[in-house]
Design goal:
The structure is a single chain. By secondary structure, this protein is an alpha+beta fold. The protein contains 2 helices and 6 strands, in the order E-E-H-E-E-H-E-E. The strands form 2 sheets. It has a 4-stranded antiparallel beta sheet. A two-stranded antiparallel sheet has the order 3-4. A hairpin with a 2-residue loop joins strand 1 and strand 2. The chain is globular. The C terminus is likely disordered.
Length: about 80
C-alpha cells in the first residue's frame, strides 16, 4: 500500500501528515471543504494519539502539497495554494 505525505506550509511553520492510500481522498475532501467554507476545520490523530486541528483559515493561507511514497521513491501528485 502506498503512503502519501501531505505537507502544509504556512508562515507559522511546515506540517507533515502521513496518509495511507485508503484515506487520501477523504483528506482531500476535508481540505477542500475547509477552503470552500463548508466546514470550519479538520482534525488529524497521529499514531501516538496526538490530536492536531487545522482551521479553515489556516489552510486557506497555506501551500499544500502531496507526495506519493513507495519505498525510496517519491513523486508529487497534488499541489495547491490558496490565498
Amino acid at each position: 500500500m502506498k503512503n502519501y505525505i501531505v505537507t502544509i506550509k504556512h508562515v507559522t511553520g511546515s506540517y507533515e501528515l502521513i496518509v495511507p492510500e485508503n484515506l487520501k481522498d477523504d483528506l482531500i475532501n476535508n481540505i477542500m471543504k475547509c477552503i470552500n467554507n463548508e466546514q470550519t476545520c479538520f482534525t488529524n490523530t497521529s499514531e501516538n494519539g496526538d490530536l492536531s486541528i487545522y482551521p479553515a483559515e489556516f489552510l486557506k493561507e497555506s501551500f499544500i502539497s502531496m507526495q506519493v511514497h513507495e519505498g525510496l521513491r517519491s513523486r508529487t501528485v497534488y499541489e495547491a495554494e490558496w490565498q
